[in-house]
Amino acid sequence: MILKREDVDIDKLTKEGELYEKIENEKVRCFACAHRCVIFEGKRGICKVRYNRGGKLFVPFNYVSGLQIDPIEKKPFFHVLPGSRALTFGMLGCNFHCPYCQNWITSQALKDERAYLYYEKIKAEEIIEIAISRKSKSVISSYNEPLITTEWAREIFRLAKEKGLLTGYVSNGYVTDETLDYLEEVLDLFKVDLKSFRNKNYRILGAILDKVLDGIIKIHKKGLWIEIVTLLVPNYNDSEEELRDIAKFIYSLSPNIPWHVTAFHPDYKMNDRERTSLRKILRAREIGFEEGLKFVYGGNVRIPEVENTYCPECGELLIEREIFFVTQNKLKKGKCFKCETEIPGIWE
User: Fold this and answer.
1) Using one digit for the tens of pLDDT, what is the confidence trace for 307-325?
2) d(CA 56, CA 33)
3) Mean pLDDT of the chain
4) What Rg do the C-alpha atoms of the chain give, in angstroms?
5) SS3 of 26, please?
6) CATH code of the domain occupying 63-286
7) Left (φ > 0), alpha (ψ -120 to 50) or beta: where does 3 sit?
8) Where are the domains of the chain?
């Protein structure tokens, strides 16, 4: 269903949230993301999908704006069940406003008049039934920012865990302790976009760098499997100094965290620069390895070898990929088939 801008029916697909507290004068404070919005009665948070009605916080529920089967490599998770299917769902809204967003049609649906309000009503049980029928091994919240629809995700993930499925977020990492605690029993994976290592750049997106870094640290300390993606935007975040700073930060947490450096293409409001060059992607990978990271991947480029997984000890090819598909997997029980080095990840 595509709604007219003036149609407010989407607000009927909500329920009272749990990640908030009531404060004075019918105001509420939301804990879903690091904005921690204080929302007055009748108003909405920065994300626009969490709103205060009568001194209670209402949050999105029982719909999706996107639902499809993807290779898990597309998320991208390269160290999780290679070659498996991931049922991916998303909703409307975002707590950032990135000018180069590739999913802006839905993520900015309540902020940009050019976007549209598309959704399909669905129950959590139906989503899991689809996942099982399509032989998915994981259920992933993506397409928009999952943190702002966490109550809905937990409902789905609770059912997914009962069926033995992995669960994950594809997120900007603007997470809080409250949300991580809320998801503790039902969440396995976290892909985080580390979009820059300069606060001035994050300000353009409507966020604060330190809160993203703090979120990544929290996720890692929780023991969730984490992979980090940096979209290299020309003349924005692609200097060697900044890329080295990102690599050093990841290394400070663990050299085993996979880092994906992916190519930008002009989109949404950022059409004033060229696509990221292959040379820049290759150099970013080199910087990651120079700083001690063991697994650095290139994305959005048609060069298979930058998508492959190699043993960090003996250099043998372990997982061969072509775009988002695994063409060869030589891992033996999570170890290098040749030197038996243990490769970090979730392999079975």
Assistant:
1) 999 999 999 999 999 988 9
2) 17
3) 95
4) 20
5) coil
6) 3.20.20.70
7) beta
8) 8-60, 63-286
